[in-house]
Amino acid sequence: MPHKNVQQEQNSSYGTIRINAKDVSPQQLLHILERRLPRDKFSVELQQDVYTIRWDQDYLGRGNQGMETCLSARFSDNKLPMGRGRLMQNDTLKYHEAEMFRLQQWQFLSPIFKDKFQFELQPRVFLPVIEQGEYKKAGFRFVYRVKVHPAHIPDGPPGDLAMKELSLKDEEEAKCLKREMKNLESLRELDRLDHPGRFHLIKPVAVCTRGEQAFLFFPWAENGDLYNFWESTDPRSHEDTLVPWMLGQMVGLSSVLELLAHMNCRHSDLKPQNILLFPGGNSIGTLKITDVGISKFHVLATTKRLKPTSAKDVTMRYCPPEFDESNPGKVKDNLEGSHELKLSRRFDIWSLGCVFLEFLVWAKLGREAWWEFDKDMGSSQKFWDRKASTTADGSDSESSDTSEYHYSLRRRVQKRLRQLRERLEPPPDATPDDVAALDVLTLVEKKMLVFDYRGRFAASEVRDHLKEIQDESDLLREQQISDTDNSATLGVNLDVVEPFGSSEGLTTTAVPRDNAAAQIYVSENNGLWGWEEQR
């Protein structure tokens, strides 16, 4: 172990202790030593599975006796914490020394994010955080950008982490944590699956609970979320690559829902703020879905195990009609003929359709149009509107049953749909990007933003349809490049073109006159170049 930092001086005294390498990991040993000593005041050598530790006794003073006693007795972190009574049984410790040990022992119980995912910490145990940025409020969570001590995350993702702090002061918050704990632990197994959706889903690092607080650790998204990206980026700055990138990300995001569906899971709060942008993949980056955990995982052996479902934390703007606040706590979803109430996984298809529509507004109508749409919608304006059905006497029904309401897209949403169609309706010279964007718009309008969830595409159908659009767009782009190259190679050389004998037209001499030839002519009526066959 290459940490031979002690410079041996004639006037310095050094303490030495040897311990079995099987009793402590290199990271743990260094972590303990570095909390007490500068690196130039100790050394560690490993030979034949034995650590030899040497430290400067003059610098450490009386503390070296405690260190030597602990190491010699193979006293390790798993013996902590120790109460006052047990500490006072040690005759070598004075009262104030035992009390100091009791108060400072908690720093050695900081968790190591390696072989374990969930940690229940005692109130005084420190988190392994060495740097913490300012918080950002997100719903009922506080999110911090943090650095974790390297010794406490040996196999974790490089760079900073996002630490979400949850309050557990009331029963609802505690229940939310229980749901999220189960969901997050299941997500860690996804890397074992051969499915493209796993590359677009953020997986947790660890979860710690301490008293009435919970801390969830995730990889930090340096580039922010999709909403930040739309807000800060002019789509014209990525004009050549934007639509191919957008199509690829849409395929990836729908693959996540397909993957979650295979796990009997749904997200229930899809929105641009829950889609984060990570570097990699290309110049723009890779979009990944976070915050899977609002809803429960439904591992159901039979329909008898269906339970009522709540999704109170869903953002109203992106929620579908079946989540209708006019009937709180009672969401209609007659699934598989069951009389139990349960949200369908096609809940997420509506939400993703809303996100895709905003994506198209930003990409094809421009950032200013998206800004205007975002301002008009706000956080509570849904994409749909509701009108009560009329009774026989012509008055509005007072029933709270959502089946007696008529739903339609909100007018400002319809306005953007019309603008997109007018912008994308294919002229004769439509670009492959416009054709693809129009196909996505049709998919969103006809198969995703459908009021009756039973008429929406499933996640696998959305993913397959988007993949077809992506493949066709790639093919059209390749053909366009090929046609451009051919046009440049096969251009007409006007220096060899001769008149045909009259002013009514021009003909090429590239073929004999007695064969069928393509004659170039000028129309007397409209002055346009055309082609006619001569024999």
TrEMBL record:
PANTHER family xrefs: PROTEIN KINASE DOMAIN-CONTAINING PROTEIN, SERINE/THREONINE-PROTEIN KINASE SBK1
Protein kinase domain mapped to chain residues: 129-468
UniProt-listed CDD domains: PKc
Source species, domain of life: Eukaryota
One Pfam short name: Pkinase
A molecular function GO annotation: protein serine/threonine kinase activity
Organism listed in the record: Fusarium duplospermum
Protein name: Protein kinase domain-containing protein
